[in-house]
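README, section 4: Worked example with a bound small molecule

Sections 1 through 3 covered apo chains. Here we extend the same pipeline to holo records, where the ligand is supplied as SMILES alongside the sequence. The molecule in this example is flavin mononucleotide. Nothing else about the input changes; the structure line simply encodes the ligand pose together with the chain.
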Amino acid sequence: MTSLADALPLRHGPALPNRLALAPLTNTQSHLDGTLSDDEIGWLTARARGGFGLVVTAAAYVQRSGLAWAGQLGVSDDAHLPGLTRLADSLRANGAVSVVQLHHGGLRANAEASGEQPVAPFADERSGARALTTGEVEQLVADFASAAARCERAGFDGVQVHGAHGYVLGQFLDVARNTRTDRYGGDAAGRARIMHEVVDAIRTATGPHFQVGLRLSPERWGIDRAEAVALAGDLLTGRELDHLDLSMWQVGKTPEDDPTRDRPLVDDYLDLPRHGTALALTGGVRNAADAQSVLDRGADIVCVGRAAVADHAFAARTLDDPAHPGPTFPVTPDQLRAECVGEAFVDYFTAGWPDLVATPA
Ligand SMILES: Cc1cc2nc3c(=O)[nH]c(=O)nc-3n(C[C@H](O)[C@H](O)[C@H](O)COP(=O)(O)O)c2cc1C
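The generated complex, written as C-alpha cells:
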C-alpha cells in the first residue's frame, strides 16, 4: 500500500519528498504590480516548513490582460523575477518542491484591476471581453512559455498550467461558446489544441529538469464530461507532463449531470493509463484519514487547500499521525493570523468562505 510518506519520483526534476501537496490558493497578498509581498512569501514558506512535499503558488498571471483580481501574483515580466527568486529559494530551503501556477483569467479577468480590456476565446458581452485573434492566441501560448522560463530562471522546480475553473484555457474547452473557426475551435481537438500547445511550448522553453503539470476541471464551465476524460487521456499519453491535477472540491463526488451514477466521477480518470505522469487529486481533504483515502483510491499526489489555510503544518502532522484530525472549522481570524495568513488573505478567505471563519460579533 502506498503511504503518504513515500517519496514520488517524477518524470523531470526532483522527486517529491512525500505525497502531500499544497493546492494552489489565491490569497490576494501580492503587490498591485504583481510583485511578491512579505505576507505571500511568509504564507507559502510556512506551508513548506509545515511539511508539504510540493508547494504550488496561487494562480499567477502570464499576461497583464489576464489579471483576475487585485493582489494577484505576476509572472509576466522580469520585474517579477527578484520576488520569484526569493520565493523559490525559501521554498527550497524549507524542503518543498516548488511550482508556480500559470494563469490567465480570460473573460474572468478584472479590467478595473488590470487596466486592460479582457480577452477570451470568444467575445463576451457581460464581461466586455473581446475575442482573441489567432495571432493573439499564438502570443498567449508564447507568454505561458516565457512565464514558465522566467519561473525556471527564478529557481522554481516547475509550473502548473491552470487549465481548470473556466479561466482562459478552460474557456477554449467550452463546447457551446467556443465557436471559433480557426484551429483553436471547431471540434474537440480544436478546442483542446491550446492545452497541448501550451505544454509543448513550455517544454521547449525550459530545461530537461523542469517539471510541468496541468490542472483540469472534469466538469462544469461548458465542458463536455467525456471530452474532458479524453483530453486527460491524451495529455497523459503525450508523455510530457509531470503531474495532472484534477480539481473537484470533493474527490468522491458523482458527476453533476448524472448524480445518481454509482461510480464517482474520478474513477473515469483513475482508469486512464498514466504513462509515468503522476495523478494529483484535489477536493475535500480535511484530516489525515481523508488524505490517506484519496491515496487509497489510486491518486499519486493528494492536494490540500482549505485545511492547509487553517493548519500550516497539516502535512507534517498528517505524516506523524495517521489520526491527525485536521483543523476544526470555523476558525477565527486570529487563528488564521497565527497560521501565517496575512490580513489580505484573512479578508479574502472570510469573504469567500464565510462558513469556515467565525468573525467576532
Ligand atoms: C481561498 C482559495 C483560493 C483558491 N485559489 C485557487 C487558485 O489560485 N488556483 C486554483 O487552481 N484553485 C484555487 N482554489 C481551489 C483549490 O486549489 C482547491 O482545488 C479547492 O480549495 C478544493 O480543495 P480543498 O477541499 O482541499 O480546499 C482556491 C480555493 C480557495 C479556498
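What to look for in the output: Residues 310 and 336 are 6 Å apart (CA to CA). The first strand starts at residue 20 and ends at 22.

Section 5 describes how to batch many such records.
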